[in-house]
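Page 37, top half.
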Amino acid sequence: MKRVSTSIIGLGIVGGILSFAWSADHFPLYGLSFLPFGIRIFFILDAVLSIIAGVLFILAFRLFTVKIIYLLEIVYWWINYLLLTLTRVLPAPLIGKPLPVTTGPALIAFILDILLIIVSTVLYIFIS
């Protein structure tokens, strides 16, 4: 059985914390009553998926032999990043117009998405 390096464990913990922070940034968006209900549900479901991704990051010391999990993490964070950036340029689903560029949760999510893409990619490379 392979020995897990401390860098994989540390990177998994950092990824988990960032993922939980991303989720904490999105949970309050459910309470915005001016958003359509479908988008509010999307924010909750995406926040729950982010919590699951955070748990998988933290369990890197146990799951390091299952590389596909971290490839799925890379895909998940890229999808979130692309949804965030493209809805600022193209019409957002259910709204029909581009979303405003804000300095609030969208900026925090943008920074966290980039960091989580980096962490999940580096973790996948370390595990390979």
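Page 37, bottom half:
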Amino acid sequence: MAGFGNPKSTARDVERALLQTGRALALDWQDAAAVQALVAETLDRRQGLKAAAGRMPHGRERQRLKLCALVVLRRRLELELGAADAPGAAWATLSRALDREIESRLAGG
């Protein structure tokens, strides 16, 4: 999937944005349940299972939507870069949770 001019630089920028947005939402990256819930919400939104509010989102809802979008963008970067070249503490935590959630959904549970 070509399309990121400098994927490593973009990955660093996205990692920074993930951390900032996580801080704004008081997300504890060490709280596995909270990270897993974020990943589940992201996949639900991507699959159309959870729609955004019918109004223009504000505050926390807007930040959650932003965080979900960053998760999707970061996964695309990871696929382009390869997991070994896609560093970042927040992303490593999210990536593992995303893999678990996808595996669980594919297994039907």
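Margin note: The first helix runs from residue 7 to 24.
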